[in-house]
Amino acid sequence: MKIGIVCYPTFGGSGVVATELGIALGKKGHEVHFITSKQPVRLNFLTQNVHFHEVFVEEYPLFHFQPYELALSSKLVAIVERYGLDILHVHYAIPHAYAAYMAKQMLKEKGIEIPIVTTLHGTDITLVGSHPFYKPAVEFSINNSDVVTAVSESLRKDTLRLFDIKKEIKVIYNFIDFDKYPSIDDVDCERNTLAKDNERIIVHVSNFRPVKRIKDVITIFAKIQEKLPSKLLMVGDGPDREQADLLSKKLGVRDQILFLGNSNEVNKILCYADLFLLPSETESFGLAALEAMAAKTPVISSNSGGLPEVNINGKTGFLSNVGDTEDMAKNAIYILENKERLMEFKVNAQIFARKFSIENILPLYEEMYRTIKVGCC
Ligand code: GMT
Predict the structure, then answer these.
(1) Model pTM?
(2) CA distance 199 to 227
């Protein structure tokens, strides 16, 4: 099939999922066209059967905000026509589902019918999308997509609770390509480049937005550090980076923390990890937690959103109420203080993550594409 994919090209989870999906579809012989504002960060040039088309927005002094949706819908029309695409799959409802709807209407005038698949990822529903400024347009775009998918059962329920949805929402979970992660039997990576033998290595990966509760990450780490010598690797960047730095100095743990910035090699960094922290305010799925588990790293997380569908309490890690850093630190120490117990959690984490292997999830997307009916608008 010929599939157009629209996503945010940055380090956010929705862009990562969309890019990995496109790459995997290309490997299976589908022709994939990314239509995005920049080349997606996880997409290399010369990927098999994968093409990239950049959406340009001209600066014009009259505009306070550049009309990206207009440029995107015009580009979608051009690419669908030029390459004869079969499907447009947009990731993150705002503004992609809306732009795709406009493109679909323009194409209809030219006698071309193209089905739109919208995948909801989380904050497009729970934080941004349900804001009164956007809600009518988001609700309209979801109802006027031909197929709607959500990345967890929790997100499906949130969407039905927050919007007046007249369509079925299919759950297709985030997935992981295990070929990129070390197996349980692999020898340890060279962790002594980062920590002493007696130190545990704890990792957090995110875009450091308020929803990730970065200050909780530092607080939990400081509490662990009181009991067990450890290092914290902070991977990513974003608005709360400086606050994290300040808090770590205040709590006297700054020297034990490495801020590594954004990385395309999270799988390699996770090779060093003993424990992963994800105390988010909300998380529709928690792809970062799944990536950690695939790299045999237990997860200490909050119990919000879709996290209980990924991180299994007492098996692959532990879950606590949002903001309960005391409980999170207690659970972290429980896992880390005993080597046999740590190994048991590591093994469980990787075994459970297999439920979300690309081999299990990719066929669900392919089946959905195959059976799609242009039943809408
Ligand atoms: O989590 C982020 O900050 C990025 C965000 C995005 O949309 O780019 O991630 C969301 O989508 C991911 C992929 O489906 C999910 O695994 C994340 O849980 C979700 N983030 C939130 O719900 C906060």
Answers:
(1) 0.93
(2) 11
Q: In 3-state terms, the chain is what percent helix, strand and coil (to 5)?
A: 45, 15, 40
* Nearest atom of ligand 1 to the alpha carbon of 17: 13
Q: Note the pLDDT tens digit of each residue in 260-300.
A: 999 888 888 888 899 999 999 999 999 999 999 999 999 99
Nearest to residue 271, comparing CAs of 320, 203, 220, 319?
A: 203
Residue 113 CA, ligand 1 centroid: distance in Å: 31
- Atom 23 of ligand 1: nearest residue by CA position: 283
pLDDT tens, residue by residue, 148-164: 999 999 999 999 999 99
pLDDT greater than 80 at residue 369: yes
Break the chain into its structural domains and give their ranges: 2-175+357-376, 178-356
Q: How far away, in angstroms, is 16 Cα from ligand 1 center?
A: 9
Average pLDDT, the chain: 93
pLDDT exceeds 90 at position 69: yes
- Tell which residue, 221, 213, 222, has the closest CA to residue 252: 222
CATH homologous superfamily, domain 178-356? Glycogen Phosphorylase B; (3.40.50.2000)
CA distances from 313 to 293, 303, 307 (A): 13, 9, 10
Sheet of strand 299-302, all strands in order from the earlier edge strand to the far edge: 257-261, 230-235, 200-205, 275-278, 299-302, 317-320
Q: What are the φ and ψ backbone dihedral angles of 48, each rounded to 5 degrees?
A: -55, 125
What CATH number is given for 2-175+357-376 in this structure?
A: 3.40.50.2000
- Residue 352: both structure tokens together: 């459970």
